[in-house]
Automatic annotation (TrEMBL):
Keywords assigned: ATP-binding, Kinase, Nucleotide-binding, Oxidoreductase, Transferase
Annotated EC: 1.1.1.81
Transmembrane segments: none
Molecular function terms, GO-annotated: ATP binding; glycerate kinase activity; hydroxypyruvate reductase [NAD(P)H] activity
Organism: Ralstonia pickettii
Stated name of the protein: Glycerate kinase
Domain called MOFRL: residue spans: 326-431
Length: 439
């Protein structure tokens, strides 16, 4: 046993011993707290301008970000942000920045009205004014402003098809940018001649700010041709007006190097890596070695589960590449190509596939949750897998493999009482996965 491992073992022996479930739940809570707006945003606030400050923004974290700005801003302030239904201010509270709620992941008329009002707030600004833009994951669907010649129904049908196709978040946002009148940098152009400062909470693997919420205030390197390629790759049947809009280049976005973005700045204030590092520190404080595999894993949830299962088996059997007991952590955004009719969620699907692959391997526990508190479009953040999950399900007459084939991870963990329900966290750095290998 290496010296640091014996030190970890001594630490474990000396510490109060949380159950595996409590330990994993605590790691998730720690991860979410580390990427809250209250924790991350104040350090990035710019100096107040000579003129007015208008706050705009969109995303699952928009209300919490607006509250953090209000708490720490020294000058006058007004504005409007849009967030998902249920992710707004606490009932009965209000502030200087108006918070409206709209639909996610498929846009609705409330999101369209909010986008129109936001653009009208930006009229008549001067170069002495500052626009502070607060962006987090989910903002793409919440700011619904169809490009000229397209309808909200057009955008909704394309969105629904993309969500079921297995397309990555980058591919989805490429299409969304080119069907919008404000995404892909166009919202920043509407702020001219005011300076734009964008603060972002990243839900994008790799943390590219131009991809977060389809980059409404940042130039866009993708093209209409790229958007068409995504539509064709997944065989998506789009309305004729959408195809024409892309084929004619009418949907082209402003590109990097465009002088109109000069003097604008953006900062990514919270990422999956921040959340994973906080969880790793917590695990180490409890006496466990902790290893971050990656902050940006993408791919089908069940394929990602197979790879994690292979790593777990190697640790259990051979103490490679890590020595047990330990915690392995990963983040990113998996996808689910929906083939069944069950209630899914990509984190529930990951855990169910992991459970099937591990087949009751003793001493292995796992949690997978979406840091926004909502796994896909369900009411749970995710779930917990234990070594006896499959056996307990079997006793209830549930066959894990069949439920996986039906994309029914939610149903499986609901029956076991192992869903994790937090409610909206009002932040979002995507998936959080932790696997505890007890020895």
């Amino acid at each position: 046993m290496h010296h640091d491992q014996s030190a970890q073992a001594a630490l474990r022996a000396a510490l109060p011993n949380p159950s595996p479930r409590a330990l994993l739940h605590g790691l998730f809570d720690t991860a979410v707290a580390a990427v809250s707006a209250a924790q991350c945003l104040p350090a990035f606030l710019p100096e107040p301008p000579r003129g007015r400050t208008i706050v705009i923004g969109a995303g699952k974290g928009a209300a919490a970000m607006a509250e953090a700005v209000e708490q720490h801003w020294k000058g006058e302030l007004s504005g409007l942000v849009v967030t998902r239904y249920g992710h707004g201010r606490a009932p009965g509270t209000q502030g200087r920045i108006e918070v409206v709620e709209a639909s996610h992941p498929v846009p609705d008329a409330a999101g369209q009205r909010a986008a129109q009002r936001m653009v009208s707030l930006l009229e008549g600004l001067t170069e002495d004014d500052l626009v502070l833009c607060l962006i987090s994951g989910g903002g793409s669907a919440l700011l619904a402003a169809p490009a000229e010649g397209l309808t909200l129904a057009d955008k909704q049908s394309v969105n629904r098809a993309l969500l079921k196709s297995g397309a990555s978040i980058g591919e989805m946002n490429c299409v969304r940018k080119h069907l919008s009148s404000i995404k892909g940098g166009r919202l920043a152009l509407a702020c001219a001649p005011a300076r734009v400062e964008t603060l972002l909470i990243s839900d994008i693997p790799g943390d590219d700010p131009t991809l977060i919420a389809s980059g409404p205030t940042l130039p866009d390197a993708t093209t209409c041709a790229d958007a068409l390629a995504v539509i064709d790759k997944y065989g998506i049947d789009v309305p004729e007006a959408v195809r024409r809009h892309l084929e004619t280049g009418a949907g082209e976005t402003p590109k990097p190097g465009d002088a109109r973005f000069e003097g604008h700045r953006s900062h990514v204030i919270a990422t999956a890596q921040h959340a994973l590092e906080a969880a790793a520190a917590q695990a180490r404080a409890l006496g466990y070695e902790a290893h971050i595999l990656s902050d940006s894993i993408e791919g089908e949830a069940r394929d990602v589960a197979e790879v994690h299962a292979g790593i777990v088996r190697q640790i259990v059997a051979r103490n490679q590449p890590f020595t047990k007991p330990c915690v392995i952590l990963s983040g990113g955004e998996t996808t689910v190509t929906v083939r069944g009719s069950g209630r899914g969620g990509r984190n529930a699907e990951f855990l169910l596939a992991l459970g099937v692959a591990l087949d009751g391997l003793p001493g292995v526990y796992a949690i997978a949750c979406d840091t926004d508190g909502i796994d896909g479009s369900e009411d749970n953040a995710g779930a917990i897998l234990t070594p006896d999950s499959l056996a307990r399900a079997e006793a209830l007459g549930l066959r894990a493999k069949q439920l996986l084939d039906n994309n029914d991870g939610y149903g499986f963990f609901d029956a076991l009482g192992d869903l994790i329900v937090t409610g909206p966290t009002r932040t979002n750095v995507n998936d959080f996965r932790a696997i505890l290998i007890t020895g």
